[in-house]
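Entry, Tuesday afternoon. Goal for today is a structural model of the target with pyridoxal-5'-phosphate bound, before we commit to ordering more compound. Inputs were pasted exactly as handed over by J.K., no edits. I checked the ligand SMILES twice against the vendor sheet because last time a stereocentre got dropped in transcription.
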Amino acid sequence: MLSNQYTITEIQQILNADGDIVKDYTISTLLTDSRRISSATAGLFFALSGRRNGHEFIAEAYAAGVRNFVVRQGSDIKAPEANFLMVADVLAALQNLAAYHRSRFNLEVIGITGSNGKTIVKEWLYQLMSPDKNIVRNPKSYNSQIGVPLSIWQINEKNDLGIFEAGISTVDEMDKLETIIKPTIGVLTHIGPAHDEGFEDRSQKMLEKLKLFKNCRLLIHNYEQLLDYGEDIPAENCFTWSTTFKQADLYVFSGTVISKNQYLRAMYKGQEIECLIPFLDEASVENATVCWATMLAMGYAPAEADNRIERLSAVSMRLELKTGINDCSVIDDSYNSDLQSLEIALNFLTQQNQHRKKTVILSDIYQSGLQADVLYKQVADLIKIKQVDKFIGVGQSLLSHQDFFDTAEKHFYPDTASMLQHLRALSFKDETILIKGSRSFEFERISRVLVQKAHETILEINLNALLNNLNFYRSKLKPGVKVMAMVKAFSYGSGTFEVANILQYNKVDYLAVAYIDEGVALRNTGISLPIMILNPEASAFDKLTEFNLEPVIYSFGLFDDYIKYAREKNVLNYPIHLKIDTGMHRLGFESADIETLCDMLEENRYVRVESIFSHLVASEDKKHDEFTKTQIKKFESAFKQVENTLGYKVIKHLSNTSGIIRWPGAQYDMVRLGIGLYGIDTGMKTPDTGLQPIASLKTSIAQVKKVKAGETISYSRSGSLPKDGKIATVRIGYADGYLRAFGNGVGKMLVKGQLVPTVGNITMDMCMIDVTGIDAREGDEVIIFNEEQRINELATQIGTIPYEILTNVSQRVKRVYFYE
Ligand SMILES: *Cc1c(COP(=O)(O)O)cnc(C)c1O
C-alpha cells in the first residue's frame, strides 16, 4: 500500500465526517476543480466554496467518474454508488486531512515564507539539495490555504526532506498553514509591500508570518529584518545573515561583479568564505544569499555550498505559450518535470483549442519517490485522460515503459540528441505542443527548434492577471449577473484565441467581437461560447449562421436585410441582439423607433431576441452622471416596451467596464466587460485597486552610440543631447505601434530600471533613447510599458486614452503568453 492511499472509510474517520459509505474506494488523489479531474475513481472531490460554490460542480465531477465527495453538512445530494462525506467546513476538512497525512511522517521540513522570493528560494533549495536528498515540495507556487494541503498530500516514505512555502494575505491564516506544514526549519525571505492591504501595518504582517516558525528548531533570516522583533521570534535557534551587521552568523562584507556573476565574500565562524552567484539582479542575489545561509545553517561545508550555488539556474515558474513553426503553438515548460507540474501543464494544454491535435514531449521524471512501474503507469494514465494525440518520450525509463502508452501516435528516444535527429520525421504541423523535461535533458534545445524565432519586440500577456481581473469584476457583480467579455480587435490587442480560450475555460457567459470574420476565427480555434457580433455585414450572413454567431440588429435597414436573408434560407428562430441608442449616437434604434421595432418583432418567426442592450457614453466620469441617468431611463423604457411585445424575458445589459463599479444599479442581467479585463479601469478612484495590468511591451537595444553635444539624431535632424552622452537604438518604431507622437523626449522607456526619454523622431522600425550614464549594452531589454510603467502614463504623454495604446501594438509584434 502506498503511503498516500487511504480508504474512504479511513478518511471518514480522520475527518470525523457524517454520511453513509455505500461502497469502499481507495483514495490517492485530492480534487478541488471539476475541470481538472485526473484519476477519477481514486479521487476525492472537495466541494470548496470560493468565488463559485463547489457544490455546483459535483454533477460535472460525477459525470467525469468521481465517486467520492466531501460536502457541506446538510447538502442534499445523492448519486448511485457515490460516497458523500458531510462536514461543517469543507476547506477545514481538506486541511485536516493534509495535517493528518503530514503527522505520519517524521522527516525534516523546511517552511518558507516572506513577501517575495518564496518560490524562487524553494526551487533553488531544491536544486541545491537534491544531489543528496529525496525532496518533496509545493508544485509551482501552490502556497495558499488550498495549495498547501494539496502539496503536503504528496509526501511519501521515500522523502527525507520537505520544502514547502506558505503564502498569506491577511491575519489568522498562518496558524492553519503551520499545522499542516509543521516545519522543523524556517526560512524567512524578503519582506516587502506585497499584501500590505490585508494587514493593519507591516508589523502585524510580520508577526503573522512568524507564526509559521513557532515549532521550528532553527530559523534562517536576515539580521536587520527582525531587529525589532527580538521577543517575537518563535524559533529555538536562529541563523542570521547580513550585509551590514558584523554580528550576523553570515556577514557578507563584499560583493563584486565578475562577468555575469556576483562574487560575495563573507565572515562565517571566524573565517572568510566566498560564494559565486550566477546572477546580477538584486532580488536574485538576495534569494541566493538566503539559500547560502540555509545551506550553511543546515551543516553543508562552505566549499560545497559555493560549488553548488555557482551552478544555480534560473527558475521559470511560468508556462509560456509561443507561436511555433508550421502553424504550431508551443507550451514551453522545459525546466522541470514531476507528476504534479506535469498535470498542471497538461491542464493548460487542454485549455488550448486552437489546434485539434495535442502533442506532449516529455523526458524521464526523476525523484518522484515512486517505483518506475507505478510512476510511468500514472504518467500514461494522465496522458490518456488529457486526450493527448501524440506522445514523444525521451529517456531510457520512458523508452523501456513505452508499452504503457496508447496514444494514437507515439515515439520514444533514449536521449534529447536522438530525438532532435528525428525531428523531421515527427512532422509537427498545426498542433499544440507541450515541451516538458527535467533540467538535465536540456529540452530548451528542442524548444529553440520548434518555437518561431520572435522579432525581438514582444508583447507579453500575463494570463493569470487576466483571470485576476475577471474575478475582480465578478466579485463586484450582483448574484446571477452574467459576464460578456469583449474580445474585439484581437482582444484589445492582447490576442484572440489565447484570451478567448482562457475566458471560455473560466466560464464567462458570452463573448463579443466587432465583425463576423472575428467570430469565425474564434469558432475555428475551438470557441463554443455564444458570440455576439456588434457590427454584422449583410454580405457575410451566410458565415454568420454557418458559424452560429449572433448578430446585433441596430437599424431597420439591417433588420430588413437579415429578415430577407432568413426568409430565403429558411432560418427560423435565430438569436439576435437589439441595440438601443440612448445617447451615444453611433449605432442603435432611437427611442422614437421602438414602436415600429416592436411591430416588426411581433410574431416574427425568423428571430428570437436573445438580448437587448445599450451603451453608456461616459460611465467613468462623474461630470456626466446626470447624462448617464437619462441613458438608464431611456434604456429601461425601451426594454420594457420590447419585452411587453415579445411576451418573454430577454437578457438586458448596459454596463461597460467602468459602469460595473460606478453604476451597480445598472448591471441588469449581464455586463459587458472590456478594458477592465486587460487591467485598466479609468472610472476607478484609485486605479490600482484589485486590477493587474496584463500586458508588457518589450524590445531590445540594437546598438549603442556615443554622441557629442549638439550632434543631431534621427530624421530631419530632430534630436540632440545637451551634453556629450550616449544613445541606444531600440527595435521599435511607429510601424510597431510606438507612435511618432512619442518622439523627441515625449515618450519614456525603462532601461535597467531607469526611465529614459526618446531622442529625435521615431522612425518606422526603430527609435533612439538617451542612455547617458546608464550601463546599457546591445541586446539589453528595454520596456515600453509594463506593470510599473503603466499604459495610462503613456496615454497621458501623448494625450490619448489607454484603449488606443493597447490596440495600436501592431500584429507584427509577437505575443507571448504566460500562465503560472
Ligand atoms: C467595446 C465595448 C464595450 C466594452 O467597453 P469597455 O469600456 O472596454 O469596458 C462594451 N460595449 C460595447 C457595445 C462595446 O463596443
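The chain is about 30% helix and 25% strand.
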